[in-house]
Amino acid sequence: MKRSSGMVHRAYFQQKAPASDVFPARFFQRNWGVPKEEVTNVEVAKGGLTLIRFQGVQHAILDDLWRQSPHLAFSYSADQQMASSSNGHCPANGAKVLPGRGKKNQERYHFTELVVLLMQKLQLDKDAASRACQKDRQYIEKLETELSNCYQEIDYLQDQLNIRNVEANIMGEHIHGLELKLTELEKFPERVRVMDNDLMRSDSQCWLLMEEVQCKEEELQKATLQIEKLESVTLDMQCEIESLKLDLTTLEQRLFDAESFSQHTAEYKVRIEKQLEEHELQLQEAWKTIGHLEVENKQLKKEYLPGRAPKQSSSTGVEQLDTTVEHDGHADYERGHEILEKMGKQNEEPELIIEQLKVELREQKLKAKEDAEDLTQEMAELRYQITGMLEEEYKRRSCIEQAAIQQIQQLEAQVSKEQRKLGGALRRLQESHELADTQATEIKKLKDALGRLNSAMNLGRVCKSCSCGFCPMLVEMSNCSIEGSLDLRSSDASNNVEAPENQALVEWHPDEASDGATVNNVGC
Prior knowledge:
This protein has 5 helices and 11 strands. It has helices spanning 23-31, 59-68, 103-186, 188-304, 315-459, and strands at residues 7-15, 41-45, 48-53, 72-80, 463-465, 472-474, 478-481, 485-489, 494-498, 503-507, 521-523.
């Protein structure tokens, strides 16, 4: 193929997505078979692609472009330019066809018109397809809403089915329970007989326990009497202890008096010893005075006695001495003799006094020694007696206290044992009463259940259908109220059972969501 020098073909493409610089050239090279050197210019501006080339556009190429790239909207125009514009014919699409080209140019012109018509038809087909797609989308949305509604209805029906299954399971369990009750009711006479035997045994045990309780009460009374006796004995012992305390106080008083008397005797002894020392001093002074007096007496005897006077050689001296002796010596001699006699008497008196004092001192010493020995002996005897009495009393009191404590412990242990036995007996009695009550209530319940069962067997089962028309509905026994009371009297060993009216209601509770639900109540 040779390139036409005067013809320019432009193809305008509008891309929905953002355009790229590489996509248009490669696309045209791959789909249109255009060599790379023939693509003179590719312009991308605001999402538009402009291809300028120097050849005609084939119809198959446009078809392939539309089939392979349906997301592109494009338009095509071809302009023919000639170097010399001799013919001024202008086609309808705005392209100028120059004269001098002949049939080839006309064919190309007609081909371009066909391409334009084809593009218009394609645009119309595209609009129709878009409208059909819009309708399809609306229809799909409608179908989706209907599908979601169907899903919701399916979920609701599934929930209803689950509820019906649960109700059916509950009914089956209830029926199974009723069957078990029926099997238990078959054993009702044996259970009643066993319960009667248990009641008889419990009554006999109650009587035995009551007798044991009475025996224990008598033993407790005896124990209380023994405790009172022991308390009286302890009071007597306390009185004896108080009397012994008084005796001890009197002995202590006597001991204190003896100690005070010994102190007084010791003080008296000290005073006597002081007096003896004073008398000894006086005696020594008297002996000294006696010695002085003896010395003076000797001197006086030497001076005044005639035989002992010195001889004077002269006669004058003898005469004078004789005269003095005659006149004065006699008087002096008498006076000195009297003095000597007095002094001798005075010397004798202290000696007598001293001897008397010595005798008295000896006597006082002997008496004091005897008194001290007596007091010490008495104090030792008193101490020995007091210690012996205290030891004996302590031993006696300890023995009594130990015996009393042992008796009290024995009594407390006995009382605790009796209390435990009594508590166990009372507990067993209470348990027997409770067992009798429970057995009586069970008997009553079994009798009531048997009556209801007989009435139900007489009535039979009633089958109905639910309002939905899918699930069967069975009438079953439920909400059975059992009330009763039992009065057990052990005095006459008879059981009086008082039973109020017992009602059994048979109800069917349908689902709240189902239409036309009803409640059937049947009284048995």
